[in-house]
Amino acid sequence: MKNPVPQAASLLLEKLMLLVHIRPLPAGSGGETPPPAPGYYDTSCFKRGDLLEVPRTLFIHFGIYLGENRVAHLMPDILPSITSDRRQIQQVVTNKRLILGVIARTASVRVDTVEDFAYGGSILVNHMDRLFEDQVLSSEEAARRAEKLVGATAYSLLWNNCEHFVTYCRYGAPVSFQTDKFCETVKMIIRDQRSVLASVLVGLASIVCLGVAPSTTLPTIFIPFFLWMAG
């Protein structure tokens, strides 16, 4: 039987990449990948209030289409907490800004072009509607909700990420299916006594990325670790 610790650690690494929404860079690239040129996407099929999804390798990024090639979406970003210069904040968010935003638990609901939002990925339109059936709000209501929320906001993987933002705007209820799957994965790793090392990593990551109170998290981390050391 294969040792589950390396598998769990590998899975944890993938989920941590989801936490920070890191954009994958092409092999051999030493800097940020420039987004496609304007006009790369055919926006004629998009309607104001549509929910746009961009599947990535390890996660899905979400936004609300506002019309005229504009998308409102929530992204972790450190800049809104340290400057009020809109010109700086409106620049395309780099990986460094993303990571620092996750650590500081700060974000912004920003309006970008479709090209900047999708960053070369394929776009799905209203793909989540099938999960909410009769809860879909009018397109105009969804767009207005998104516009009202534009600006700096708190960031939390569990309570306020890009999926929470779009589901609130279009369906009236902030939920995140990606977060639910991540939490179930964490629970499975922690419950597996053979994956103690991965459990330690999960606990430490929760402190750094999710802001979990040390008083409740540290026992979960170190008690299994000490048992593993003693065994």
TrEMBL record:
Gene3D superfamilies: endopeptidase domain like (from Nostoc punctiforme). Belongs to the H-rev107 family. The chain crosses the membrane at residues 196-229. Keywords: Acyltransferase, Cytoplasm, Endoplasmic reticulum, Endosome, Lipid metabolism, Membrane, Sensory transduction, Signal, Transferase, Transmembrane, Transmembrane helix, Vision. The keyword Nucleotide-binding does not apply. Its EC number is 2.3.1.135. Pfam families: LRAT. The keyword Nucleotide-binding does not apply. It is a single-pass membrane protein. It comes from the Eukaryota. It is found in: Cytoplasm, Perinuclear region; Endoplasmic reticulum membrane; Late endosome; Rough endoplasmic reticulum. It catalyses: 1,2-dioctanoyl-sn-glycero-3-phosphocholine + all-trans-retinol--[retinol-binding protein] = 2-octanoyl-sn-glycero-3-phosphocholine + all-trans-retinyl octanoate + apo--[retinol-binding protein]; all-trans-retinol--[retinol-binding protein] + a 1,2-diacyl-sn-glycero-3-phosphocholine = apo--[retinol-binding protein] + an all-trans-retinyl ester + a 2-acyl-sn-glycero-3-phosphocholine; 1,2-didodecanoyl-sn-glycero-3-phosphocholine + all-trans-retinol--[retinol-binding protein] = 2-dodecanoyl-sn-glycero-3-phosphocholine + all-trans-retinyl dodecanoate + apo--[retinol-binding protein]; all-trans-retinol--[retinol-binding protein] + 1,2-dihexadecanoyl-sn-glycero-3-phosphocholine = apo--[retinol-binding protein] + all-trans-retinyl hexadecanoate + 2-hexadecanoyl-sn-glycero-3-phosphocholine. The gene is Lrat. Residues 51-178 form the LRAT domain. Residues 1-27 form the signal peptide. GO terms for molecular function: phosphatidylcholine-retinol O-acyltransferase activity. Transfers the acyl group from the sn-1 position of phosphatidylcholine to all-trans retinol, producing all-trans retinyl esters. Retinyl esters are storage forms of vitamin A. LRAT plays a critical role in vision. It provides the all-trans retinyl ester substrates for the isomerohydrolase which processes the esters into 11-cis-retinol in the retinal pigment epithelium; due to a membrane-associated alcohol dehydrogenase, 11 cis-retinol is oxidized and converted into 11-cis-retinaldehyde which is the chromophore for rhodopsin and the cone photopigments. InterPro entries: LRAT (IPR042288), LRAT_dom (IPR007053). The active site is at residue 162. This is Lecithin retinol acyltransferase. Pathway: Cofactor metabolism; retinol metabolism.
